[in-house]
Amino acid sequence: MIIAVDGPTASGKGTIAKALAAHFGLPHLDTGLLYRAVGRQCALNHGNADDPGDALNACDFPDDLLDDPELRSEATGGLASRVSVHPEVRRALFERQRAFATQPGGAVLDGRDIGTVIAPEAQVKLFVVASVPARAERRFKEMQASGRQVSLAEIAADLEARDARDRSRAEAPLVAAQDAVLLDTSDMGPAQAIAEAIRIASHAVA
Ligand code: C5P
2-205: which CATH number, 3.40.309.10, 3.40.50.300, 3.40.50.2300, 3.20.20.70? Predict the structure, then answer.
């Protein structure tokens, strides 16, 4: 069984995808981390994230970069959003994601284009959304917990800029697959969002 969990940053899709993977005993891939690694590698190469050639070169990042805590920062998220615009980068990361999705037994993947591009045949497709204030608040708490100094207004502005870029790009924009189930987590805590996702997924495969 393939479970595709798509949606914008801080919508809760990562938490939901991890919980679905644990519930159904499936491996999980956070595909945003791959784009974050490309963005980070591009910066380490002193490249320009808006340049397709520099961004493509950065797709050769070493695997241990995936464990770099800097990948979780807002700055790297912004770089990821910029490199992910280039079709060359999306193509370079396609096979790795596709192989993960189609492994025997199935998998859970979260990202922006799992249900539309990476695994359109997924048996379960969730599109997780939440309001900008709800998402900014969550990200703010995460940042505070990790000791980072960022204002709520800065986070909200960054989320909106990233959403706009992800939604408007020509290739694989952030959009719900026609057969995806929409899950709005604005007024839900993690436990409720997870329970709802498990209910939707169980129903879809019943
Ligand atoms: O999900 P996360 O915030 O870690 O993703 C970082 C950026 O990577 C997103 O803003 C998006 O631009 C890009 N991304 C993507 N396709 C995916 C996953 C992430 O374009 N499947």
Answer: 3.40.50.300
